[in-house]
Design goal:
- There is one protein chain.
- The strands form 4 sheets. Strands 3, 4, 5, 8, 9, 16 and 17 form a 7-stranded mixed sheet that branches. This protein has a 6-stranded parallel sheet with strand order 12-11-10-13-14-15, covered by helices on one side. It has a two-stranded antiparallel ribbon with strand order 1-2.
- The relative contact order is 0.16.
- The two termini are about 20 Å apart.
- α4 (about 160-170) packs across α10.
- The protein has about 350 residues and is of the alpha/beta class.
- About 25% of the residues lie in helices and about 25% in strands.
- It binds NADP nicotinamide-adenine-dinucleotide phosphate (NAP) and zinc ion (2 copies).
Length: about 350
């Protein structure tokens, strides 16, 4: 076994604290990665605090992982020691169902094995995520990262990146379309960058007027403040696609009014019930769709990484030491991040107390 240091949440109410645990020695198809950076996703906050009522403790969060390969098993073909590699939200799936066979492991009918807050397949062993020194993952769930990119800004691509790229591609967003990205946070800022790179006219839809300047710098052509009813009315029935990243219960009805006939709003942020309720008429009159989307499959994640390398896209990050993770969570709750916290894992290496 490999001894690993990390940070874990012991339960839903206590802060994260240093935690020692073991990972398996790499098997024939495994890749052992020394973690260099790990992004802090709002999902880490939801899950450490048991917002989705499915949390398993102790929990080592983190599913925006980049690092250097230190060792590979005998059958690994994709990567070798010294390569840069990334791990996102999944570390395994059944590999046999139709979703897995069609490269959508995130929709595995037997449920994917999540990078943390999950159990290894056929075992009671908890999975532990990227707020740690090392990870061992089957090569199928590892992506290759080109050596030319700014690695700090790549970490968030493994979740925030793929979660926004995948629906934009699935709903064929491109030139000639007006696309709204709702919520300028970790996911939203990547959504703006991708929608722009795909050729769409991009409108940042935000509750925070002070983020307008940043939104334009990130690629938005226009900024729409959702609390401004008159501005919302001016944009009524004008959008070809809406990507909604809001992490909490909110009224989706005013956003549906922004869609043209036959167009869709896709939820990626809201995993809990709609509150207030959805008015059926807001879908019926205009044949509109409300849909959802989860991360992306492994093949598409590699495609997204390559797309980013080609278009020079990375996340805008604020680096934090792992000792500041609880403070970073508090700032995330207060909507005070531009636009993704990334943990520099050197801070763990250098900490004798961890
Ligand atoms: P984040 O960085 O906290 O950003 C969320 C943004 O939503 C905020 O910056 C804010 O933008 C807006 N917002 C926050 N509270 C709001 C409210 N009460 N009403 C309206 N807007 C509000 O979060 P994130 O990391 O991007 O994650 C967003 C959500 O996606 C989380 O729920 C996360 O769990 C989920 N997620 C889902 C997947 C998936 O596969 N579907 C993957 C990753 C994450 P403005 O200030 O611009 O309004
Ligand atoms: Zn995430
Ligand atoms: Zn499957």
């Amino acid at each position: 076994m490999i001894e690993v240091r990390g940070y874990s949440a012991p339960n839903a109410h206590s802060p994260l604290a240093p935690f020692k645990f073991e990972r398996r020695e790499p098997g024939p198809r495994d890749v052992q990665i020394e973690i260099l950076y790990c992004g802090i996703c709002h999902s880490d906050l939801h899950q450490t605090r048991n917002d989705w009522s499915n949390s398993l403790y102790p929990m080592v969060p983190g599913h925006e992982i980049v690092g250097r390969v230190v060792r590979v098993g005998a059958e690994v073909r994709k990567l070798k020691a010294g390569d840069l590699a990334g791990v996102g939200c999944m570390v395994d799936s059944c590999r046999q169902c139709s979703a897995c066979k069609e490269h959508m492991e995130q929709y595995c009918e037997q449920v994917a094995t999540w990078t943390y807050n999950s159990k290894e397949r056929g075992s009671e062993q908890l999975t532990f995520g990227g707020y740690s020194e090392q990870i061992v993952v089957d090569e199928h769930f590892v992506v290759s990262i080109p050596a030319t990119v700014d690695l700090k800004g790549v970490a968030p691509l493994l979740c925030a990146g793929i979660t926004t790229y995948s629906p934009l591609r699935h709903w064929h967003v491109g030139a000639g379309q007006k696309v709204g990205v709702i919520g300028l946070g970790g996911l939203g800022h990547m959504g703006v960058k991708f929608a722009k790179a795909l050729g769409a006219k991009v409108v940042m839809i935000t509750t925070s007027p002070e983020k307008g300047k940043d939104a334009r710098r990130l690629g938005a052509d226009e900024v729409l403040v959702s609390r401004d009813a008159a501005a919302m009315a001016q944009h009524a029935a004008s959008f070809d696609f809406l990507l909604n990243t809001i992490p909490v219960a909110h009224d989706v009805n005013p956003y549906l009014a922004l869609l043209k006939r036959d167009k869709a709003m896709v939820l990626v942020g809201l995993l809990t019930p709609l509150e207030p309720p959805l008015q059926g008429g807001n879908l019926i009159f205009g044949r509109k769709s409300l849909s959802g989307s989860a991360i992306g499959g492994m093949e598409e994640t590699q495609e997204m990484i390559d797309f980013c390398a080609k278009h020079n896209i990375v996340s805008d990050v604020e680096m934090v030491p792992i000792q500041a993770v609880n403070a970073a969570y508090e700032r995330l709750v207060k909507n005070d991040v531009k636009y993704r916290f990334v943990i520099d894992m050197k801070s763990l290496k250098d900490d004798p107390g961890a």
